[in-house]
Design brief:
- The structure holds three protein chains of three kinds.
- By secondary structure, chain B is of the alpha/beta class.
- Chain B folds into two domains: about 5-185 and about 220-230, Thiamin diphosphate (ThDP)-binding fold, Pyr/PP domains (Rossmann fold); about 235-345, Rossmann fold (3-Layer(aba) Sandwich).
- Chain B has helices at about 5-15, 30-40, 50-65, 75-80, 80-90, 115-120, 140-155, 165-170, 210-230, 250-265, 285-290, 305-315, 335-345, and strands at about 20, 45, 70, 95-100, 130-135, 160-165, 200-205, 235, 245, 270-275, 275-280, 295-300, 320-325.
- In chain B, α1 runs parallel beside α2 and α10 (about 250-265) packs across α13 (about 335-345).
- In chain C, strands 3-2-4-5-7-6-8 form a seven-stranded mixed β-sheet, with helices on both faces.
- In chain C, α1 crosses α7 (about 180-200), α2 (about 70-80) packs parallel to α4 (about 100-110) and α3 packs across α4 (about 100-110).
- Chain C is α/β, with parallel strands linked by helices.
- The chains are: A alpha+beta, B alpha/beta, C alpha/beta.
- The interface of A and C includes residues 4, 66 and 96 of A.
Chain lengths: ~100, ~350, ~240
């Protein structure tokens, strides 16, 4: 799988935006509620391209998006971005002096 | 120099970093003077769109640790009340000058002392206090401007300098000198300067947590108590052995001083108590005087505002009388003398 | 695996009090990301509004100040004029900026003040329980327009970007929408451009209007609210660059 996401369940408010905008439909609102009582989003574990859209639309910065190194190297030839890394936002390469 | 220019130059000597203001009679000489002099000193001057904007610009500059001031007259000070409450809640130092005119409403442009309540009793919302300094001659106006900036920085409060249309316009010789601070000014480590090298600073007055605002208020009250213990200023003139004490501040006190002299010549043992800080009010001095005089006559250029504080301080020991003329009416020394004569009770047989 | 998207440093690691699907969460994140990418977080001072975002300082890790309702542009003026080297921004809602604070923002633009304004337009007063805002649209039901806003008698929606761009002292005015991933990316670009202009010492006001969802008081689910921005709000408040 090219990518994966980790959802911070305690930050999620179950708003459903990631569910609606995920191009693969890989995110659902699950049946588990968090400490605040929200039914939170869950990644069903299926194909993730690491597009980052879920992270972008999340109002709670509750989703981290990961991508495999090899895919990153291949996918970014000619795709622009500095030092060959494909980044959407945030992340360890984002802040620079 | 006229009074308005004196207070402006005194502020510059005190190192004011920024002046924000809006024109209003009778203090327009201040804005004009500052417009010319502040850029000469490399400081910030801005004529802004309203008094409401001006006090908020002061709030902003003060929050970054700068010395900031504004000046206005009664109706403009009314507009600033929201800002004064926020300054108090956020504990920011600021200096505001009110050159009083007649009111209420649009009033007139004549001098008055009708803003005593507004200055000492708020007039913004919440349990807060403002330091109020009332000069009665131009040298004192210059001296109190320096003191205002010091007190504001020491206590993180607003210091309001209460002048009036006469003081603003009159011309008297004044010695303008650069001074050095007699006190140790605390570092402004709370100021917003960018979080580099430390954690985030927040300037706020909203405390939503359970009991948090109550706690914040007690903190403020403790501070105000310190001010009351340490910063009272009051002049006493010929009060030794007096039968009647006239209580007056600002320009009214100058008139009353003459009246007291006339009274003494007429054989009446009169004296003058002149509060210089209206808050903290010299309640102790007045209380002490009430032990030996047979009455206190409060004279104000209003319908009677400070007289209430005098009554509170006297606690019913002796009669407290009032004479005043509001909204541009200026009492003469002769009028005050006549009132003193009426007021002094016959000596006990 | 390498993280390509995670929480940026200036966005504090706290759950926000905002409603599920509220646009403030996205807008705060964009501001934080921009400040980190431009490397100015340590010399930035932000102004929080009166409104749902009054507690913005709990989420954005920069020096911040609370101010009276609507007065942010005046406070920002006081700050920037006395501290020209600091990056000053105000973050205001439609009550703060387009109702009570209209004089302050107009005059800040008139004078060409050199700070950045992020204007969150969600066509309603959220904090106080969903009353009509100057930006509320025709027919919109709110707590103070129970029959739906009627332009005649209750006023027309205020098009702030158009208004501000007509003033000579504004140098960059853009309206964008938090209505989907593509639009959100555009918003971030606009916010970044506005801050970059301030960093470069540009002589005038940078202004970004952000159409934002208020699912609770629009009485919609978050996904529907995003659609409503896309399909309805943009008809009245067209996104685009008005100046600069």
């Amino acid at each position: 799988m090219a990518g994966k996401i980790i959802i911070d369940v305690e930050k999620c408010k179950g708003c459903g935006l990631c569910v609606s905008f995920c191009p693969r439909g890989s995110i659902v609102i699950g049946r588990k509620s968090n400490m605040k009582g929200y039914f939170t989003a869950e990644w069903d574990g299926s194909e993730c391209t690491g597009c980052g859209i879920c992270g972008i639309v999340c109002p709670d910065a509750a989703i981290e998006v990961y991508i495999q190194e090899e895919v990153k190297a291949v996918g970014t030839k000619g795709a622009g971005g500095k030092s060959g890394s494909r980044k959407v936002a945030g992340g360890p390469n984002a802040a620079k002096g | 120099m006229c009074g308005n220019e004196v207070l402006a130059e005194a502020a510059i000597l005190a190192g004011v970093d920024a002046y924000f203001g809006y024109p209003i009679t009778p203090q327009n000489e201040v804005t004009a003077y500052m417009a010319r002099r502040m850029p000469e000193e490399g400081r910030v001057f801005l004529q802004c769109e309203s008094e409401l904007a001006a006090i908020n610009m002061v709030y902003g500059a003060a929050a970054t640790g700068k010395r900031a001031m504004t000046s206005s007259s009664s109706p403009g000070i009314s507009l600033m009340q929201e800002g004064l409450s926020y300054l108090a809640g956020a504990e920011l130092p600021a200096v505001v000058v009110n050159v009083m005119r007649g009111g209420p409403g649009l009033g007139n442009i004549a001098p008055s002392q009708g803003d005593y309540f507004q200055s000492t009793r708020g007039g913004g919302h919440g349990d807060y206090r403002t330091i109020v300094l009332a000069p009665s001659h131009l040298q004192e106006l210059a001296d109190l401007m320096w003191l205002a900036f010091e007190l504001a920085d020491v206590y993180r409060m607003t210091a309001l300098v209460l002048a009036d249309g006469i003081l603003g316009q009159m011309m008297e010789p004044v010695v303008m000198a650069k001074r050095s601070s007699a006190r140790e000014l605390p570092p402004k480590d709370w100021a917003l300067t960018g979080k580099k090298g430390r954690s985030q600073n927040i300037v706020r007055s909203l405390w939503l947590g359970d009991g948090a605002l109550e706690e914040s208020n007690y903190r403020l009250q403790a501070k105000y108590k310190k001010v009351q213990q340490n910063e009272v200023l009051c002049e006493q003139y010929r009060v030794e052995g007096a039968e009647v004490a006239v209580v007056a501040y600002g320009i009214a006190a100058r008139i009353c001083r003459s009246a007291v002299n006339l009274a003494r010549e007429a054989g009446i043992k009169a004296g003058l108590i002149r509060p210089i800080t209206l808050w903290p009010f010299p309640g102790e001095q007045i209380k002490q005087a009430a032990e030996s005089v047979r009455g206190l006559l409060t004279v104000e250029m209003s319908c009677g505002q400070m007289v209430e504080d005098v009554k509170l301080a006297v606690e019913g020991r002796v009669p407290v009388g009032f004479y005043g003329r509001p909204a541009g009416g200026v009492p003469t020394a002769g009028e005050v003398l006549a009132r003193i004569k009426e007021f002094v009770p016959e000596p006990a047989r | 695996m390498e993280a390509i998207f995670k929480r940026t440093a200036t966005l504090k690691d706290f759950q926000t009090h905002y409603c599920p699907g509220c646009g403030h969460g996205i807008a705060h994140r964009l501001v934080a990301e921009v400040l980190d990418e431009l490397g100015v977080s340590e010399r930035t001072i932000g102004i929080a509004p009166v409104g749902c975002a009054v507690l913005a300082y709990d989420y954005l890790d920069v020096d911040m100040i609370e101010v009276a309702h609507g007065r942010a542009p005046a406070v920002a003026t006081g700050m920037k004029r006395t501290n020209p080297d600091k990056i000053i921004f105000s973050y205001q809602g439609d009550g703060d900026l387009a109702a009570i604070g209209t004089a302050e923002i107009v005059h800040a633009a008139q004078r060409g003040e050199r700070f950045t304004v992020i204007f969150i337009n969600n066509a309603i007063f959220g904090m106080t329980g969903g009353q009509m805002a100057p930006t509320t649209v025709d027919g919109q039901v709110t707590a103070t327009t129970p029959k739906g806003r009627s332009y005649i008698g209750q006023g027309y929606p205020m098009k702030v970007s158009e208004l501000i761009s007509s003033l000579p002292g504004s140098i960059y005015v853009e309206r964008c929408a938090l209505s989907g991933p593509g639009q959100i990316r555009k918003c971030k670009k606009a916010i970044k451009k506005a801050f970059q202009l301030q960093i470069d010492g540009a002589d005038g006001l940078g202004f970004v209007e952000v159409l934002s969802a208020c699912p609770t008081y629009w009485r919609m689910r978050p996904v529907e609210a995003m659609k409503w921005i896309e399909e309805e709000m943009t008809q009245i408040f067209p996104p685009g660059r008005f100046k600069g």
